[in-house]
Amino acid sequence: MRTGHHQLREPFSVSFEFFPPKAPEMETQLWETVEALRVWNPDFVSVTYGAGGSTKAPTLATVRRLIEETPLVTAAHLTCVDASREEVQAVVAEYKTLGVRHIVALRGDPASGVGTSYVPHPDGFGDTAELVAGLRALGDFDISVSAYPEKHPESHNMDADIDTLKRKADAGAARALTQFFFDNDIFERYLDKVRAAGITIPIVPGIMPIQNLTQLKRFASRCGASVPAFLDARFADYEDRPAERAQVAADVAAEQMDDLRRRGVDDFHIYTMNRAPLVGAVLERLGRSRRRAQSGAAA
Ligand code: FAD
């Protein structure tokens, strides 16, 4: 069922998150995805930065190619885990040389694994707010940070989590992109608390179209994101019917975004998982118009 998307025609903005390819065949998939998603005119696209700085080179290569070969505004993620200030500054210098103006600043997880308790590098940034302040000192960057509507798994409680967000905003973050979630009431309650804490920056919901519910559940449990039971019911009959399952997946994400729009949300950050068809199907359901971006066009 497509619920009422025709009633909300005014434009909304989207950004797309990609990860750097880890193997040659994934490289082809990424560039096909970028090509296919360009037509949806994202405000920006972003490229993740590997755990413990392990994929610095692939991130840089992907960011370089996006900037050199497409007209897309490209944001580069950056983490400060397991790195000295000098090492982080060297990456920032490379980003600057490439022409990166937007950085998604994160703490990151230790290379030893998610769940291992975080210990700042002895010569590193103590936390993400310090990283944001450091970036501000290095250049005129547009800085995004993370936010966790269901709190980060390491946070002792929601107040501590929101306090972290406040310190990141106070340090100069321009917006926060959220961890994915599927229950819009959770997001709305979170937003109320964020605003009550005096945080005024935009909180952009992260949308995860569901390519595979079983895999998603595994991943979500590590991120502290809940997967509501209604999703089991929606996907129950389609496990072995990929074509219909893709339709349901597109319906689910479009309905979530449509409902968020009714609650006043105008910006969305979409986790593409480097695949275009599902993301395209979601945006089509929302009535977003396609336009081919002009290569190299300057305003
Ligand atoms: P912060 O915002 O600094 O902290 C998150 C929460 O954890 C805080 O609210 C705080 O209360 C709590 N916390 C932090 N440190 C501690 C501590 N020492 N003790 C107790 N509580 C603590 N990871 C990557 O490796 N590369 C990426 O490119 C990447 N991109 C991401 C993009 C988005 C939009 C999101 C939501 C996450 C991304 N991550 C990425 C994952 C992120 O690095 C992890 O979730 C990491 O564990 C926290 O980093 P952060 O910047 O979100 O942390």
Listing every helix as H and every strand as E from the N terminus to the C terminus, the arrangement reads EHEHEHEHEHEHEHHHEH
Q: How much helical structure, as a percent, in the residues?
A: 40-55%
Distance between the termini: 39 Å
Output the CATH topology.
Answer: TIM Barrel
Work out the helix count: 10
What strand order characterises the main sheet? 1-2-3-4-5-6-7-8
Strand content: 5-15%
What would you report as the Rg, rounded to the nearest angstrom? 19 Å
What CATH architecture would you give?
Alpha-Beta Barrel
- The oligomeric state of the chains shown is single chain
Main sheet makeup: 8 strands, parallel, barrel
Mean of all residue-level pLDDT scores: 92
Overall number of domains = 1
Total count of strands: 8
Q: What compounds sit in this structure?
A: flavin-adenine dinucleotide
Give a quick rundown of the structure.
The chain is an alpha/beta fold. The protein has helices spanning 24-37, 56-69, 85-98, 128-138, 158-170, 184-196, 213-223, 229-235, 242-262, 277-285; strands at 13-18, 44-47, 74-79, 102-106, 142-147, 175-180, 203-207, 267-271.
Give an overview of the whole structure.
The protein has 299 residues and is of the alpha/beta class. It has one domain: TIM Barrel, CATH 3.20.20.220. The chain contains ten helices and eight strands. It has helices at 24-37, 56-69, 85-98, 128-138, 158-170, 184-196, 213-223, 229-235, 242-262, 277-285; strands spanning 13-18, 44-47, 74-79, 102-106, 142-147, 175-180, 203-207, 267-271. The chain has an eight-stranded parallel barrel with strand order 1-2-3-4-5-6-7-8, surrounded by five helices. Helix 9 crosses helix 10. Mean pLDDT is 92; it is low at 1-6. Bound molecules: flavin-adenine dinucleotide. The site of flavin-adenine dinucleotide (FAD) has 23 residues, from strand 3, strand 4, helix 5 and strand 6.
